[in-house]
Amino acid sequence: MEKMNAPVKVTDGLLSIGYVANLKNGVYIRELQEYLNDTDQDPTSQDLRKRATNAEIILLNKHGYPKDAAGRTVPASRAKFKAFNTGYIHAGKDVYGWFEKNESGTFVGVTWGTLQELRAYARLREQTSHLFKMGDFYFDNIDDCQDFLEDIAQATIPESLEVQKQNHSHQVSDSQKLPRNAVRAAEKRGKVLKKQKMANTSSLIRTSSTSFFMPCILSPSTRGRRS
């Protein structure tokens, strides 16, 4: 397996298609190698660059199709995805690399999979577009999300936690305690707790700038607050 360190020119390869969010340290090529792990194909960054440069770029609508229900080709202004056929095969089907248009109009990628997997992803995106999202969880609305967090908070036991930051010990106060079960779960997974600042965006969830955050866990000091 190859480790990608060489820069990729904007004039060709993947960067000519869109912004490659997983470019650093060759993550994109490792993800493709892992996707093809059960085959005898071993893609390299150089080979993939040539394929991306020479491939036909297809524009897909929000459902993952190049044409609408009336058979009209998707125009660039209405394209939700850009995709290209890598030439690799997985489970008897062509493997594509695709980029998805974000809210600012930039195509961001790259994700690997078959067209069927792309369309399944597109359906999921459409189904969840109207839901309130917190991390990898979706809720009908923010109130359901807050109720979920309150249930977690009530089911755990507060415990003082001492953390180390920049070689200085910091003792967490009572108002900044984390649930014991959450701390233990994080330790088991080898996660590192970091002291973070969280902006008061959209006034949806308000937190103090000294609270600790973990996936799906809010500190008890934020319990019960709603906009």
Keywords, separated by commas or semicolons:
227 residues, 11 strands, alpha+beta, two-stranded antiparallel ribbon, disordered N terminus, disordered C terminus, five-stranded mixed sheet
Can you walk me through this structure?
With 227 residues, this protein is α+β, with helices and mostly antiparallel strands. The chain is built from five helices and eleven strands. The termini are far apart.
Short structural description:
This protein is α+β, with helices and mostly antiparallel strands and 227 residues long.
Our measurement of the CA-to-CA distance between the termini, rounded to an integer number of angstroms, reads 50 Å
Number of strands: 11
Alpha carbon gyration radius: 22 Å
The proportion of residues forming helix, as a percent range, comes to: 10-25%
State the helix count. Answer: 5
Spans of at least 5 consecutive residues with low confidence: 1-9, 188-227
* Shape, per Cα inertia axes: globular
Mean pLDDT: 75
Strand order of the largest sheet: 1-5-4-3-2
Main pleated-sheet profile: 5 strands, mixed
Order of helices and strands: EHHEEEEHEEHEEEEH
SSE class: alpha+beta
Q: Strand percentage, roughly? A: 15-25%
